[in-house]
Amino acid sequence: MQNIWFSSDFHWGHKNIVRGTTEWDAGDSDKVRNFDTVEEHNEQLIHNINSVVKYDHTLYYLGDWSFGGHENIKKFRDQLHCRDIRFFFGNHDQHIEPIDSPYRKLFTSCDYYGELNLKIDSQKTGQYGKQKIVMSHYAMRVWNKSHHGSIMLFGHSHGNLKGYEEYKTMDVGCDTHNLYPYHLDEIIDIMKGRKVLLEVDHHAKHTN
């Protein structure tokens, strides 16, 4: 298997997502991460990412990179070992999104949506053959080839979007994985027991 990773919603430098510095209401306490300071939060993210995603690996990043000023975009990027990060814009990436943004060059590519067509050959998961993966910051109710077993990966919702857990779609945000990225192997293993999404609209398994 290729060393391919997926994640989103790092929110590096975001004080309101940190328990010790948040200004959110007490009722939002379940939406914060358990750190005393933003610095502790940032350091833990860098450690977690670099401990698994190596220099020559590929990370597909599904949006919401950093907070605390546009200078934090490069500051965070410079501390990650991985050279090949494929970026998909989230709703908090306004400094990266403009076509003339100098921050785009920090990433291998920048886009709103993407698809992978992979050849899976894994003794670990027992999965073989072709696999399409669809990616966006936002979840989709239907996606390209969903009725033929393609996988839809998204972020944005921080593990709080419910209702599709039995189907081949998942939130790869770091909040759903102890602030670690997911390896391709992990996703394929999770998805092998999930249902193909059939007949949500006029598409079904027998249609194109």
Characterise this structure.
The chain is of the alpha/beta class and 208 residues long. It has one domain (4-191): Metallo-dependent phosphatases (Purple Acid Phosphatase, chain A, domain 2, 4-Layer Sandwich). Helix content is 14%, strand content 22%. The protein has three helices and nine strands. It has helices at residues 38-52, 71-77, 184-191; strands at residues 4-7, 58-61, 84-88, 109-111, 113-122, 127-136, 151-154, 169-171, 182-183. It has a five-stranded mixed sheet. Strands 5-6-7-8 form a four-stranded mixed sheet. β1 (4-7), α1 (38-52) and β2 form a beta-alpha-beta unit. The longest helix is centred in the first third of the chain and has 15 residues, at 38-52. It is globular and about 50 Å long. The protein starts with a strand and ends in a 17-residue tail after the last helix.
